[in-house]
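User: I'm new to structure prediction. If I give you an amino acid sequence, what do you actually give back? Let's try with this one:
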Amino acid sequence: MSNRLANEDSPYLQQHKDNPVDWWPWCDKAFETAEEENKAIFISIGYSSCHWCHVMEEQVFENQECADILNRDFIAIKVDREERPDIDKHYQEVHQLLNRRSGGWPTSIFSTPQNKPFFAGTYIPPESNTGSIEGMGFKELTTLIATKISENDEQIYKNADEAEGFLNNIQHPKEATVLNEDFRKNFMLQAKNNFDTKNGGFSIKPKFPHASTLNTLLTIDRLYDDKSAKAMVETSLNAMKKGGMYDLVDGGFCRYSTDEEWVVPHFEKMLYDNALLSSVYVDAYLAYDDVSYLNTAKECVNFWYNFMSEDELFYSASDADSEGAEGTYFIYTYDEVAQVLRDAEIEDVTSKLAQMSVTKLGNFAGKNIIRFEDGIIPEWFIDVKPLLSQIRSQKEYPFIDKKVQTSWSAMMIHTMFKLGSIDAKYKTRAIKHLDKLLNTMFINSTLYHTTLIHKKPKVEAFLEDYAFLSQALLSAYKYTQDEVYLVYAHRFVNKALEEFYEKGVWNFSAGEFVTQAEISDNTYTSSVSIMLDALLSIGTLLEDEKYTHFAFKTMEYNSYELGRKPIYSPFMLTQVLRHLKGDRVIKTSLDNINISALTLAKIDYPFVLLKSSEEDEYMICGEKSCFAQTLKVEEVNSLVSNSF
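Assistant: Good question. You get back a string of structure tokens that encode the predicted 3D arrangement of the chain. For your 644 residues, that looks like this:
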């Protein structure tokens, strides 16, 4: 029989509706019941495409003995971290506080009947394997906690009160530091220290792509002609697109690599990763004129457009698992690839198999992930790719989370507008997606965070939704000059300031959980830094210093930490450099903006805005004055450079 989750919209909660656990969704009634019945609270946070969430479901939540303990002694609550990032953020802070290390998913939180947390973990196996509490299995741990709560154990309640006290003690910076361009030097030292010179990227294993770091390195190279920044960008982008973490058959990046060489991925695909990485590849193409970067960006966007969208709305993620195992859809046996190539009468089959890294031993659990070790995709792969797709079509496709997220969708739309400066069809698509997103998620003057396709949204927007949507709207204005998009962006920035900002500090959420927004670029770019980008653009375009002032106060408030550890907040560093260097606005006719879109996109200076005028000439302007003008678009780049 289904539990209470059967009535929830979230695909993740729906995955758990038939567990023998008597799950509650997050609601007041659950917490009231816990206090009335003096039961401990167990909060489990995850998301639909999370591999270890699936493992915990199979091993623990489908285990009748574990379920019986939870049903008897606990109020068990399931939370979709993508639907409620405010709740997730709060409990990630709890995990960090209680364990002195970052958490992850699934997140497992145990709280008193008054919902004061005292124990936090991630995946907990059903059985114990050591004598320490860290090694306790779920059965032993829950039995122990239930006993202590029923006995009103003083130590548990004392620990919970202390944890709550720490969580409520907001830490403010001790001092401010003068914003200056030398912050980048510290950033470069820290980036070089983390950089993998052989394989690219900024860690060992597991290796995440760090799109924000690459973006800032690219900006630094464009501003200062920094050869080491360029080398880190190119080495990383070249290594990532060889195949493995990047899916050469369908397109799109997986979430991270389990090895240093980007070969074996964790196979889930997230909208935010593909949006942010596509954006970096577009910028790298514009800066370095490497067509392979453009092709990778297009393939990523095309994958999401072809596989992961419906009615001009983007899905949020696809799973790593299918047919009961991780990666099944994505991998190949040697024999099946060899056979399909021979049946299609492809020449030099043995040679082509070797080039694609397809061997009898395999590179993943005895099977093969398609990869070109030299990083060069040969022309013949155009004919082979449909054959590899044909093999995949006979397999079960991984589960798709059809949840629509305002913030993540806006990231992809922002990238599509940039890609549209190179290929106009992407601008056309971006306009359709943006208009549909607004119609779906902005209802009766209220912006929402998430919904399912063809359903009304229920969860109201967080800072990240206002930030990324404002950024996408400003891109829409830049490439279409439609004033409606600028009006929308202005409106959302004002609303964000009203709801989330106070004296340099930004909150991530308002309401049930008022949590401070981070400035670090973690899973994806900090919403504070994206809001800075929007504030600076609005300030320049509207010639309103109020928005520039809010941006400055935010950067000043965070300047001490940013100066010391810029590697954690690369996109905020980008905005500091932008603030110090200044924007450039190219004013010209709308026809010129459309005809010369690619030339204008390739301007070396990274902080350029466009504004249509009645004039055919191109005028180069700064904050309060214009510097030069020309009738030749080919001269604009040098005129911008010479304006400093």
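You can read the tokens as a compact description of the fold. Here is one thing that stands out. The chain has four domains: 4-168, 183-320+401-581, 321-397, 584-641.
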